[in-house]
Automatic annotation (TrEMBL), chain A:
Residues 2-44 form the Rhodanese domain. PANTHER family: SARCOSINE DEHYDROGENASE-RELATED. GO terms for molecular function: sarcosine oxidase activity. It comes from Neoroseomonas alkaliterrae. It is an enzyme of class 1 (oxidoreductase). This is Sarcosine oxidase subunit beta.
From TrEMBL, chain B:
This is FAD/NAD(P)-binding domain-containing protein. One of its GO terms (molecular function) is oxidoreductase activity. CDD domains: GlpA-like_Fer2_BFD-like. Keywords: Oxidoreductase. It holds the Pfam family Pyr_redox_2. The keyword Zinc does not apply. The keyword rRNA processing does not apply. It comes from the Bacteria. Residues 21-221 form the FAD/NAD(P)-binding domain. It comes from Neoroseomonas alkaliterrae.
C-alpha cells in the first residue's frame, strides 16, 4: 500500500500513475480533492524552466483520454507586451523553450490584433508560443481523483493525517483521523503542510506559505486561442469564455495547525482589473463577477523539492513551490518512479533534492524578507 | 527581518477616499435607524445604498428578481435618485442629523485583517458608483442589506415577467416603475399577502393567487402571457403578464460571509442567517447585522422547491443553463459534451455547493448565483443541509473600468510582479540557482524595484 498525503494535483497525479500500473494507493486529503491551490489557479501548462517541461508537453494532449474526463486543456499561449521592457523579458523566457527545440513566433501589433481582438494601440506586439497551453484546474483535479478510483485506488476525503509511524528506518503506517493505514511507501505532497508532516521524521523542509488572488469576468465570446496573458498578469480565457487572471502582490503568512486559512481577497483585486483593462482596453465594460484566493508555498529558491529521503527510505517529499498545476501530469509520473525505483528515468531531478538546503540558516525567511506579519 | 519582500503586500498602502467610525450598508428602515443612532451618539457615520441601481443590473436580476418588468424611466439616474429619496423620507432626516448619505453606491467588498490578510492596516469598505470604485476606512459596520428573492425553477420561470416579491416591491414602491398590468401571485404566506395588497392598492389587476404548493407552468414564448397550475389533478390556466414569486425571501448574507462572520443554517429565519445576539452583534467584533439581513420569517420554501425541482428539465441555473438533471448527474457543462460520473452527485460524498458549482457551473454565472443558490442548495440537501456556498468580492458585478479606477499606491505598481519575485524560479531548474539573477517573470516596467 502506497499512502499519498495530500489530495492536490501533485498527490493525485502520483496516485493516478501508480494505480494505473496496478499498485494499491490511498490518498488522504484533509478536505475536498483539489480544494486548495490545485483547483484555483491560472491553469497554465507552460513551464520551460522545469526539467519536467518536455514530459508536461508530451502528456497534456493525452490527459483527457488518460483520465477519462475533460480537463479543458487547449494548446498554445499568446504573450502580450505593452512596452519594450515587457517584450524583452518575454523573449528571455521564450528562449528557455526555443533552446529546447520548441517554436515561437513574433507577433507585430496587427498580427496580435488578429489573434486577440481585445488588445489596443498600446500593445507593442507579442509572441505566439507554439507550445504550452492551459486547462481547467478544478475539473482536472477532479478528473485525477475519479481516474484514481477507477483504477482501484482509494481516496479518503475529510481525513487528516496525524503522523507517520516508522520502524527500522522505514515508514510503516500513516496515522489519520480515520485510523491507521499500514504502508509500504509514503508520498508527502501536502502543499504548505508538507513541512510540518516531514518535521517529525527529522527533516526540515523549508517553505513559506503565501496567499495569492485572482479575479474572473463574465463570459465573452471565445477567441481562437484563449491562453493570452501579459502585463504582469497570468491567466486565460476559459473555454466558457470568462477571463480569469491573477498576479500582483502576494502575502506571506503562517499556518496555524493543520487547517489551511481561508484565502480572502484584498483591494489588490482592483489592481488586477486595472492591469487587465490596460492589456485589453476594449474590454472596460466587461464585468468582474468573482474573485478568489489561494494558499501556496514557496521554497527558498522558488523551485520544487522532489526527493526520496534516505531515512526513512520509503518516503518521498514533494513540493512544487507554488507552480504545480501545469506540471502535474509529469510530476506525478516522476514521483511514481521515485516511489517505485528511487529515480526518475525521463527527467534530471538532481537539482531538486532537499539536501540543497542543508546549510540554510534557521532564519532564512527573515533574511529573504518573507516573514509573515503579525495577525 | 532585513527588509520586507518588495513584491509582497507588506507595507503597501491602500488609499482611502474617507474614513468613518461607523458605516451602515443598506438604507431601508433598519439601516436608516442604525445610521441615525450612530450619528446621535457622536459617531462619524456613512450610510450607503445601492439604489438607484446601475440599469445593467436590473437585467441581471441583481439584487432582486426584477424579471424585466421595470419601465424605461429606470435609465434616468437623476429621476431615480429623486424617487428613492421620496420613497425613503428617513434619508433626508438622517442627512440633517449629520449622517453622510451615499445612494446609488454599491458595497462590493470589505477587507479586514485576518490570518491570511495580515497586511491590511485598517478595516476597509469597497464602494462603487457607475464610474469608479473606491475605499473608505471604518471601525464599525452595520449591515442592513435586507433580503433577496428566492426563485422557483418552474417551467417558464426565466421569461420576462417573472419576478420575485422583493423585485415587485422595489419596482412598485421604490422606483415607481412597474410595467405590468395583470399579475398572478405565488405564495400563501405574509409575503404573498403583502404583494397582493400592494398590487390592489395601486390599482393593478390581480388575476389570481396560488396559495398552496402546486405544480406550476409559466406560459408564454417571448414573455409571460399566463400561468397554469395544477389543482385536484387537473391543469387550470389564467392569463396574466406578470407572475410574482412571493413564496419566500432569504437574508442577504454576502457581506457578513465575506467578512468571516459566523453564519448558520436556520430554516426558521429564511435559511442561512448570520449568528447574531439580541443587539444584532455578529461573531466579529464591531460588525452588526440588522433587519431582514439578520433573518426573515419562516415560509413554505422547501415544499415549493421540491415541486419545482422534481422535474428533470427544471432549469435551475439560468446563466449557465444547468438543469436539475444535469445537477443530479453531475454533468459537465454543455460545451464539453461529456457525461458526469456514473453515480452522479452521490460520487462526491458530503455535497458541497462550491464544489458542485465548479463541476457543473451552476451558480457560476453573471447573476453571481442569486437566482439559483436556494434551488441548488435544496437539491444538495436531501439528507442534511449542505454548507453555505461562499460569497466573494465583488458582491455586485463591476465593470473592469470601474474596478480599475480604484486609486493605487505607486509602490504597489512599481513592485508589481506576475508571480512572486523569485528570480531563480524562472531559470532552468536543471542548473543550480544562480546568485543575483534577473527576474524575467511578468513585470510591468524595467524600472527598479522600490525598496
Amino acid at each position: 500500500m502506497i499512502v499519498i498525503i495530500g489530495g492536490g494535483v501533485t498527490g493525485l497525479s502520483t496516485a493516478f500513475w501508480l494505480a494505473r500500473e496496478g499498485h494499491a494507493v490511498t490518498v488522504v486529503e484533509k478536505g475536498i480533492v483539489g480544494w486548495e491551490a490545485s483547483g484555483r489557479n491560472g491553469g497554465g501548462c507552460t513551464h520551460p524552466y522545469s526539467p519536467l517541461f518536455r514530459e508536461e508537453q508530451r502528456l497534456w494532449p493525452m490527459m483527457d483520454d488518460l483520465l477519462g474526463h475533460p480537463t479543458e486543456w487547449r494548446p498554445n499561449r499568446i504573450k502580450v507586451a505593452l512596452d519594450e521592457g515587457q517584450l524583452d523579458r518575454l523573449w528571455k523566457s521564450t528562449r528557455l523553450a526555443t533552446d529546447q527545440g520548441f517554436a515561437a513566433e513574433v507577433l507585430d501589433r496587427a498580427a496580435l490584433r488578429d489573434l486577440v481582438p481585445w488588445v489596443g494601440e498600446n500593445a507593442v506586439g507579442g509572441i505566439l508560443w507554439k507550445y504550452g497551453g492551459h486547462a481547467n484546474p478544478q475539473r482536472t483535479s477532479q478528473a485525477y481523483a475519479w481516474a484514481v478510483e477507477r483504477h482501484g485506488g482509494r481516496i479518503l476525503q475529510h481525513t487528516t493525517v496525524r503522523g507517520i509511524r516508522t520502524r527500522g528506518g522505514r515508514a510503516v503506517a500513516v496515522e489519520t483521523s480515520a485510523g491507521e493505514i499500514g504502508c509500504d511507501a509514503v508520498v508527502i505532497a501536502a502543499g504548505p503542510h508538507t513541512a510540518a508532516l516531514a518535521q517529525p521524521l527529522g527533516h526540515r523542509v523549508p517553505m513559506a506559505p503565501a496567499r495569492v488572488e485572482m479575479i474572473v469576468t463574465e463570459p465573452l465570446p471565445p477567441i481562437a486561442m484563449g491562453g493570452v496573458d501579459g502585463n504582469g498578469l497570468y491567466g486565460r480565457q476559459t473555454l466558457r469564455g470568462n477571463l480569469a487572471y491573477g498576479g500582483g502582490p502576494h502575502e506571506w503568512i503562517d499556518l496555524d495547525g493543520e487547517a489551511t486559512p481561508r484565502p480572502v481577497n484584498t483591494p489588490v483585486m482592483a489592481g488586477l482589473a486595472r492591469r487587465l483593462q490596460e492589456m485589453f482596453p476594449r474590454l472596460g465594460h466587461v464585468r468582474v463577477i468573482r474573485s478568489w484566493g489561494g494558499i501556496v508555498e514557496n521554497t527558498p529558491d522558488g523551485r520544487p523539492i522532489l526527493d526520496r529521503l534516505e531515512d526513512p527510505a520509503n518516503v518521498v517529499v514533494a513540493s512544487m513551490s507554488s507552480v504545480g498545476f501545469g506540471l502535474s501530469p509529469a510530476t506525478g509520473r516522476a514521483l511514481a518512479q521515485l516511489v517505485l525505483q528511487g529515480r526518475c528515468d525521463f527527467a534530471d531531478l538532481s537539482q531538486l533534492k532537499l539536501s540543497r538546503f542543508g546549510n540554510l540558516p534557521l532564519d532564512w525567511r527573515s533574511r529573504q524578507g518573507w516573514d509573515a506579519l503579525p495577525v | 527581518m532585513t527588509h520586507a519582500d518588495p513584491t509582497s503586500i507588506a507595507g503597501k498602502r491602500f488609499p482611502l477616499r474617507d474614513s468613518f467610525t461607523h458605516v451602515v450598508i443598506g438604507a431601508g428602515e433598519a439601516g436608516i435607524a442604525a445610521a441615525r443612532a450612530a450619528a446621535a451618539s457622536g459617531e462619524r457615520a456613512l450610510l450607503v445604498d445601492e439604489h438607484p441601481l446601475d440599469p445593467g443590473l436590473f437585467g441581471l436580476d441583481i439584487p432582486y428578481l426584477f424579471g424585466g418588468r421595470l419601465d424605461a424611466s429606470t435609465r434616468q439616474a437623476a429621476r431615480m435618485e429623486e424617487r428613492i429619496v421620496a420613497a425613503r423620507p428617513g434619508l433626508l432626516q438622517a442627512m440633517e442629523e449629520g449622517v453622510e448619505v451615499a445612494i446609488g453606491t454599491a458595497a462590493w467588498g470589505a477587507f479586514v485583517k485576518g490570518p491570511s490578510s495580515r497586511a491590511l492596516p485598517v478595516r476597509m469598505l469597497g464602494l462603487a458608483d457607475r464610474d469608479a470604485a473606491w475605499l473608505v476606512g471604518f471601525e464599525r459596520m452595520t449591515i442592513a442589506t435586507g433580503a433577496r428573492d428566492v426563485a422557483l425553477p418552474f417551467p417558464g420561470w426565466t421569461l420576462p415577467g417573472v419576478m420575485g416579491a422583493q423585485g415587485f416591491d422595489a419596482a412598485l414602491r421604490l422606483y415607481g416603475a412597474f410595467s405590468g398590468r395583470r399579475i398572478a401571485i405565488i405564495g400563501g404566506g405574509a409575503l404573498a399577502q403583502q404583494a397582493e395588497a400592494a398590487a390592489r392598492g395601486t390599482g393593478l389587476d390581480v388575476a389570481l393567487r396560488v396559495a398552496a404548493p402546486a405544480p406550476l407552468r409559466i406560459l408564454g414564448r417571448e414573455e409571460v402571457t399566463g400561468l397554469a397550475w395544477q389543482q385536484d389533478g387537473a391543469w387550470r390556466e389564467a392569463a396574466c403578464d406578470t407572475v410574482v414569486l412571493a413564496v419566500d425571501t432569504v437574508p442577504m448574507v454576502e457581506l457578513p460571509d465575506l467578512l468571516g462572520c459566523a453564519i448558520g443554517w436556520d430554516p426558521a429565519h429564511g435559511g442561512f442567517a448570520p449568528v447574531v445576539d439580541a443587539q444584532g452583534r455578529s461573531s466579529l467584533d464591531g460588525i452588526a447585522v440588522r433587519g431582514e439581513a439578520a433573518g426573515t420569517a419562516a415560509a413554505q420554501r422547501a415544499a415549493w422547491l421540491d415541486l419545482a425541482l422534481a422535474a428533470d428539465e427544471a432549469l435551475v441555473c439560468a446563466c449557465e443553463e444547468v438543469s436539475a438533471a444535469d445537477l443530479r448527474a453531475l454533468r459537465p457543462p454543455r460545451y464539453l459534451a461529456a457525461e458526469g460520473p456514473e453515480a452522479g452527485l452521490a460520487r462526491l460524498g458530503p455535497p458541497n455547493q462550491d464544489q458542485v458549482k465548479r463541476l457543473t457551473r451552476a451558480g457560476m454565472g453573471a447573476c453571481q448565483g442569486r437566482r439559483c443558490r436556494e434551488s441548488v442548495h435544496a437539491l444538495l440537501s436531501r439528507e442534511r443541509p449542505a454548507p453555505l456556498a461562499s460569497h466573494r468580492a465583488p458582491l455586485r458585478p463591476l465593470p473592469l473600468s470601474v474596478l480599475a479606477a480604484l486609486e493605487e499606491d505607486p509602490a504597489l505598481r512599481a513592485n508589481w510582479t506576475g508571480w512572486f519575485g523569485i528570480a531563480a524560479q524562472w531559470l532552468p531548474h536543471w542548473e543550480p540557482a544562480p546568485p543575483d539573477a534577473e527576474y524575467i517573470g511578468g513585470r510591468l516596467s524595467g524600472g527598479d524595484v522600490v525598496k
